[in-house]
Amino acid sequence: MPYKERLEKRKFDETRKIEAKVGVIPNADGSSYFKIGNTWAYAAVYGPRNLHPKFLQDPSKGILRCNYNMMPFSSSGERVRPGGSRRSKEISLVTEKALLPVLDLNEYPNSVVDVFIELPQTEAGSRCAGICAASMALADAGLTMKDLVCAVSVGRVDDKLLVDLDYSEESYENGPVADIPIAIMPNSNKITLLQMDGLVSKDELKNLLEMGKKVCKDIYEIQKKALKDKYKREAK
Amino acid sequence: MSNELREHLIRLFESNIRLDGRKFTDYRPVKVEVNVTNTAEGSARVMIGKTDVIAGVKVEVMEPYPDTPDEGSIMVGAELLPLSSAEFELGPPGQKAIELARVVDRGIRESKCLDFKKLYIKEGEKAWMIVVDICTINDAGNLLDASSLAAIASLRNTTFPEYKDDKIDYKKKTNKKLELKDIPLSVTVIKIGDKFLVDPDSDEEKAIDTRLTVASLSDGTLCALQKGGDYPLTSEDIAKMVDIGIEKGKELRKLVK
Questions:
Q1: Full-model pTM
Q2: CB-based contact (8 Å) between B139 and chain A?
Q3: Residue A116: which of B77, B83, B140 has the nearest Cβ?
Q4: Residue B248 lies inside a defined structural domain of this protein
Q5: Which terminus of chain B faces fewer neighbouring Cβ atoms within 10 Å, N or C?
Q6: pLDDT tens across B103-112, in order?
Q7: At B244, is the secondary structure helix, strand, or coil?
Q8: Contact call for residues B49 and B203 (beta carbons, < 8 A)
Q9: Domain limits at B165?
Q10: Which fold has domain A7-235?
Q11: What would the mean pLDDT of A43-55 be, rounded to a whole number?
């Protein structure tokens, strides 16, 4: 049975509703939230600050440290036990690698930039939402950056190629599914996160990456607007 | 905390002045929002000034404890997320987080506002476990009161998911609400020098001599207490602090619908 229609009549190249805001955590050096559909990610940046323990310090440059965490009540299923899982550790790692290429940490030897991503509510696409939020928070913290980072999942459900899979699509059972979270630097079109699980052909992958880049440009505009809005708010 | 700042605060208090212009028994603006996250069975967000916390409730089915075979139970967890303050670190909960969770837990448990007997499903075999988790978004002082308010507000809009054939279907929500007989609320009264005040901001919190968290019911009955801080209290101090706690509790209670 071919996959015909998405929930809420969403087009195949359309994301769920996005809302972004910058400057939401007064204590942080930079902060934001990014909501896409029912997925909601907060990000806070602290630093550059002193790095302890000392043996982790790099005298030639600063390091980036990301932590992705789901709040205990953020899953639509059972409670998520606090303390992190293998999954959250891996997502923290790929988030770090997705953000690192836009940063220049040479100015901050022996220091760390900490990025904390917390999710109060999730429904598919949480690592991408976390990366979008983190990149805005880094910009809000005033760090030197080459570009923002925009992330979205693309994929295939049965015979259809689509962007921003929701939970029902990730777990579609009447045909093959591929879920491909990607992150791009919108100004150079380079890809900084690429993961996939599922089955997909070479040509489909190529098309999906193009679809993802296109959608990321829209996300980029939303991120830029959220950053500017903070200063409009403060000017008032 | 520098001694200078503490001495400065005390000098100001002598002339009845707080740094942000509040009276000693004034809270900063308090905002309570409910149903903030739809993945939880109940949730609430509380903002007191710039302090910001979210509480979410998940329900689980457990085997009742052997000494209370016909009762369910409640558990409160608190995480001082490193996202919410430069002073909080990653890792397992420390003393501060555990005290916070336990004080909130006792305020609710000992108030008996939750009838554990109504939480049992099958005697000796199955009962509901109500788990409240508190997550801090921004710590600008007085997490204790913000968390206790968020916890009770989240419990008050908790609905049970469907439970069928020994399984919870979290996707199917029922109309069955968690029943609460009262609204226990905690007010933390702090003592700095010889002054008593409520709702300390981060600076005041670091300057405290003593604090007393007073949890009370709507009729003024006390249901839990917790003294903190490095200095002792006299009976007269405690009487004054309890009075303030009950009085302010009545005001906060109006915010929980």
A1: 0.93
A2: yes
A3: B83
A4: yes
A5: C
A6: 999 999 998 8
A7: helix
A8: no
A9: 24-253
A10: Ribosomal Protein S5; domain 2 (3.30.230)
A11: 92
